[in-house]
Amino acid sequence: MKIFFKIRKLVISLFVFIFTSSQVFSYVHHEHNECSYQMAWAKKYGGVIEYELNDGTRVDCLTDKYAIEFDFYNKWAEGIGQALHYGYKTKKIPRVILILENPKREMVYFNRVKRLANAYNFEVSYVTKDILNLDKYGRCSNLQCKCHKRNCK
């Protein structure tokens, strides 16, 4: 009987470990690449994509006024750090553009960054899939995007 309880305890422990670690390290699937949003935004508003700085880092989009970092909502904190670095290096206003694929659910991240932008003097905005002008199959104009690699049936 003791062995049964030990095995049961082990199985429950393994189940809890697998469940919790899968939640922490779960992969976030995005239908379109970050680059697709960068390209669509730059086409609409202007700017140089992937502008390389003298330290080897690359600004996602550099305009006359802004050093812009694009990031998906789940990478909001990384986006702030990168935008601040790019702004410092280029002497332009740092700007984070969050990519919101489901704005109703993900707006909490934008609001979080917005509060920090107000406190630390950088700009923030967001884009949605609307900027991509998707075709009837849900594909964007960036042929390198993963949306072109999926089955379109």
Please, could you describe this protein's structure?
With 153 residues, the chain is α/β, with parallel strands linked by helices. It has one domain. Helices cover 44% and strands 19% of the residues. The protein is built from 4 helices and 5 strands, in the order H-H-E-E-E-H-E-H-E. It has helices spanning 2-24, 34-45, 76-90, 103-120; strands spanning 48-52, 58-62, 66-72, 93-99, 123-127. Strands 1-2-3-4-5 form a 5-stranded mixed beta sheet, sandwiched between helices. Strand 4 (93-99), helix 4 and strand 5 (123-127) form a beta-alpha-beta unit. The longest helix has 23 residues, at 2-24. The termini are far apart. 27% of the residues are buried. Residues 19-26 have low confidence and may be disordered.
Secondary structure: elements and pairs:
Blueprint: H1 2-24, H2 34-45, E1 48-52, E2 58-62, E3 66-72, H3 76-90, E4 93-99, H4 103-120, E5 123-127
